């Protein structure tokens, strides 16, 4: 080691404490507190790409070493201890000027990009690793939109970007309808469509839906154009007169079933 060397802390670093719990069986059998808690620190440095475990003394030493200016190695060693400094250098969290190490070059590249420290750490530790997207696509046999529909079925019907049942319910409420309920089915089909429902791996729901709207005949007639518009491209719509109707909500009651 040259006394003329200079060192500094890496630029993009995040520290996270963790309570590590272990069980002391001797204390457990003796009727004493058996859970032992030891605090450890995890250092995530963007230029390393892996997590480094530290103890409290090493974290304190890191806090005493600046990350912007190069400092004399001898002065830093006098401040944090020679062995502690050498350990932090070996871990790649403290860098030596002009030593040609890969960690030094990677840290310098991040500094040149002027990346925000937390953003750099978040990016480096959330990247995919060992994933071949082309090979995965070939294995799935899905190479086109037609292949996607053949395997998972057609997408659920939408009206102006919303599911039909959602838009229908929203518009009925805005129109002052008495009430509407949507029921989600598990599996179903209509006409010449393939059976559809939810399958493992799907993000969007393809379950069939059944929306029931109950109101007075004159009100149904008023909102019928609204229903017709929303269901113009995809839906089965039926209308019938129910022989009796009663609604209760707390102390409020509408309709009656007498004489039915």
Which helices and strands occur, and which strands form pairs?
Elements: E1 6-9, E2 13-23, H1 25-29, E3 35-45, E4 51-54, H2 56-63, E5 71-72, H3 73-80, H4 82-91, E6 94-96, H5 102-113, H6 117-124, H7 133-140, H8 145-152, E7 158-159, E8 162-163, H9 164-174, E9 180-184, E10 187-188, E11 196-197, E12 209-213, H10 217-230, E13 245-249, E14 252-256
Antiparallel strand pairs: 1-5, 1-6, 2-3, 3-4, 7-8, 9-12, 10-11, 13-14
Helix pairs in contact: 3-4, 9-10
Average pLDDT taken over every residue: 80
Q: Number of helical runs?
A: 10
Q: Which strand-content bin applies to the residues?
A: 15-25%
Distance between the termini: 99 Å
Give the low-pLDDT segments. none
Model description:
With 260 residues, the protein is α+β, with helices and mostly antiparallel strands. It folds into 2 domains: 6-124, no CATH class; 145-255, Alpha-Beta Plaits (2-Layer Sandwich), CATH 3.30.70. Helices cover 35% and strands 24% of the residues. α3 (73-80) crosses α4 (82-91) and α9 packs antiparallel against α10 (217-230).
